[in-house]
Amino acid sequence: MVKTQLKITKLGFFYIFLTVFVGISAINTGNNLLFVVVSFLLSFMLLSGWFAKLNLKWLEIYFTFPQECYVGLPTLVKVTLINRKKFIPSFLVKLNFKIKNFKNTHPYLVTFFLTEYISEKVLTITFLERGYNYIEEIYIFSNFPFNFFVLKKPLKIKKKLLVFPKPTNCIRIFKEFLTFEKLTEKNYRLGEGEGEFKGIKDYFKGIPTKYISWKHSAKFEEALKIKSFSQELTTFTIINFEEIKIPDLEEKLSCVTYIILENFKKGIPTGLKINGKFFPPQLSYFHKINMLKELALYERI
After folding, report:
1. Is the pTM of this model over 0.85?
2. Helix 32-55 and helix 10-29: axis angle, to 10°?
3. What range does the domain containing 177 cover?
4. What is the pLDDT of residues 45-88, one digit of tens each?
């Protein structure tokens, strides 16, 4: 069960002291007017606590991240606060959370002044370390309505975000460690057909299923047919990570990240040999993310 924490502010301590002082005075003097004042002060304090608790009830927090996050590059993170209370808005709700990575922890604070149903804030966060970054220790709190108390409520939310190495242009340093090869039928699957439709030819292992002509294949009981195009990609790149002679590991990871991103922009199928694994050259988005993930988690626990 999530426990709500209560902290009394300086103004709250003063108000409590004032209430106790008036109460003692009323007892000592027997003055009915002072008893009325004490009752009013106690009622006011009770209402303050009730409104403060209601203010934080039925609130939900959501984080929205971009598909790709890189070290050192500003990342826009959207924080959404949803108020599930009908006809009752929430005021001055603050969100406190921490982003914990491989070495350090960084705190962040977001303030929502008025939330009738949904409020959104966009934060610019620059991640400093690659690998998994965790959003944890998430709290919502508020000093509404009279700043007598600060009500703090922990949320059972924990987010995990994968941050890729910072892309750095240093292709001149290790051009010699890139392998460029011509595309043949054996690695036809590495590229995607382009240009005008040329005809039908026999299927061979490794070709993506999207190139199979099912209409023509249906005419043959034992053979599949594929579509052929007038233009096909002619080269692909394979990066051998272990052979790149850059002493600084983070710099090497940044360089390889840059090459992968640039090749995909140019439509060049790219493969990667790293840590005993081999990613054959492809052009799919899923393939790119898999290679970047391997780089991000290299020598990380």
Report:
1. no
2. 150
3. 166-192+233-301
4. 998 889 999 999 999 999 999 999 999 999 999 999 999 998 89
The position carrying tokens 């070290």 is 71
Are 50 and 86 part of one and the same domain? yes
Same domain, 105 and 144: yes
Residue 51 neighbours by CB under 8 Å, 6+ apart: 144, 145
If you write DSSP's letter for every residue of the chain in order, what string do you get? -PPPEEEE-HHHHHHHHHHHHHHHHHHHH--HHHHHHHHHHHHHHHHHHHHHHHHTTTEEEEEE--S--BTTSEEEEEEEEEE--TT--EEEEEEEEEEE-SS-EEEEEEEEEEESSEEEEEEEEE--S-EEEEEEEEEEEE-TTTSSEEEEEE----EEEEEBPPP---TTTSGGGEEEEE--GGGGGGS--EEEEEEEEE--TT--GGGB-HHHHTT-SS--EEEEEEE---EEEEEEGGG---S-HHHHHHHHHHHHHHHHHHT--EEEEETTEEEEEE--HHHHHHHHHHHHTTT--
Q: What is the pLDDT of residues 15-44, one digit of tens each?
A: 999 999 999 999 998 888 998 999 999 998
Beta bridge partners of 125: 75
Asked if 227 and 251 sit in the same domain, the reply is: no
Which neighbouring-strand residues pair with 7?
150
